[in-house]
Design a protein that fits this description.
alpha/beta; 2 domains; elongated; single chain; 6-stranded mixed beta sheet; 4-stranded antiparallel beta sheet; Aminopeptidase; Alpha-Beta Plaits
């Protein structure tokens, strides 16, 4: 590996540090919810174009998705650097302003040496990680069909590689009954009873669910008045499984609960499922390459404990398509999805860490593009480690 190339990459990123800081703060000051990230999409596209990337927007039918492309000296593998930039209702409490900044910084860094390499780099702007599933939509549409390796970094309170994620799906359930006066309940059909039974029956099935399964729900609407039999009631459940195959078992249990509620109380129902976020497979060889660079920049990178609790992200769907990593970068001591973390992501200390993230990501991309041996090792691990699911199991369009 070329230390000269590393120096060129890090020097280039240092030279645009002010621009990257301005980007991180601008995104923080203009938080946008899922599929509404018009400012972020425009701002990121303009910066990438300024630094030599050819940018296309409106990807996979999403107005706020984009792909920036830069080619090397000849054909070769494609490395995709993924950017998230949607916010939460409390602002950038998950640090997506920093994710986008690190990805753009890495793209600028690797762009400095790409003319010496075979292959290309894509910067893929992926909207709506916080619920809309932008990457799921892209996987379904085939955006990653011509990608060989994918990477991004997530801010966190620890430096970690090899962290996994659970498969997850949300189900909104609406029950329809018949109203009646509370003194004549036998004349009505109680939709709230169906909702309550759904919760109770899911609790009764917990011992039958696969290991690491998780079920949480809440009642959205339960009626309008205490002396009226509710003709409409609704709830939403978040169901998780260790793997897609486990999640599908939990989902079947959910539908059993719904069917028995309708049978018992005479209701009808409508179920609106979300897109499925799958479990995550972090490529160890890619992660270890990243770890080497991050530790050379002064950070200590750890591994997750065996019993660490995981959330879910649509990066999991990408990891089923191509070798993928999403290491975690410590920017402070706050937990994500808190007001404290939202404040932290605009701090000087966090932005300084983002510079390191950009450098480590860019140098990892360089290593991959520069070594056919490394490419083959990564692909072999992917082949041995990552399961195959059908498009039907993943909820994708089966007519493709």
């Amino acid at each position: 590996m070329s230390s000269t190339a590393y120096e060129r990459i890090t020097s280039k990123i240092d030279s645009v540090a002010g621009e990257l800081k301005e980007l991180a703060l601008a995104l923080h000051a203009n938080p946008e919810l899922s599929f509404q990230e018009h400012f972020a999409c425009k701002t990121l596209s303009e910066i990438l174009e300024k630094h030599g990337y050819q940018v296309q927007t409106n990807i996979a039918g999403m107005e706020t998705a984009f792909i920036g492309e830069m080619k090397g000296k000849a054909d070769g593998p494609t490395v995709a650097i993924l950017a998230e930039y949607d916010a939460l209702p409390m602002g950038h409490a998950c640090g997506h302003n920093l994710i986008a900044t690190m990805s753009v910084g890495a793209a600028i860094g690797i762009g400095e040496v790409l003319k010496d390499l075979c292959g290309r780099v894509l910067v893929i702007g992926t909207p709506a990680e916080e619920g809309g599933g932008g990457k799921v939509i892209m996987c379904d549409a085939g955006v990653f069909d011509d990608v060989d390796f994918a990477m991004m970094i997530h801010p966190h309170k620890r430096n970690l590689i090899q962290r996994g994620g659970l498969a997850v799906k949300h189900l909104k359930i609406e029950y329809f009954g018949k109203p009646a006066h509370g003194t004549r309940p036998e004349e009505g059909i109680n939709a709230l009873n169906a909702v309550i039974h759904t919760f109770n029956f899911m609790d009764a099935q917990r011992a039958l669910l696969p290991f690491k399964s998780n079920v949480n729900g809440y009642i959205i609407e339960g009626g309008k008045a205490s002396n009226i039999i509710p003709e409409y009631a609704s709830c939403e459940f978040c169901i998780r499984g260790d793997m897609v195959k486990d999640l599908l078992v939990v989902e079947k249990a959910m539908y059993r609960a719904i069917d028995t509620a309708n049978t018992l109380f005479g209701t009808t129902s409508k179920v609106t499922p979300s897109l499925m976020y799958t479990e995550r497979y972090s490529n160890r060889i890619m992660d270890e390459t990243y770890k080497t660079h991050m530790e050379a920049l002064g950070e200590v990178v750890e591994y997750p404990e065996p019993n660490m609790k995981y959330g879910s992200s649509d990066i999991g769907n990408v990891s089923l398509e191509v070798p993928t990593i999403q290491p975690y970068l410590k920017i402070g001591s706050c937990d994500t999805h808190t007001h404290g973390f939202a404040e932290l992501t605009k701090s000087d200390a966090a932005i300084e860490q983002a510079y390191k993230g950009s450098k480590a990501l860019a140098m990892t991309a360089y290593d991959i593009l520069n070594s056919k041996e490394l490419q083959e090792q990564i692909k072999q691990e992917f082949k041995e480690k990552v399961p195959f699911y059908t498009r039907e199991q993943l909820g994708y369009n089966t007519e493709k």
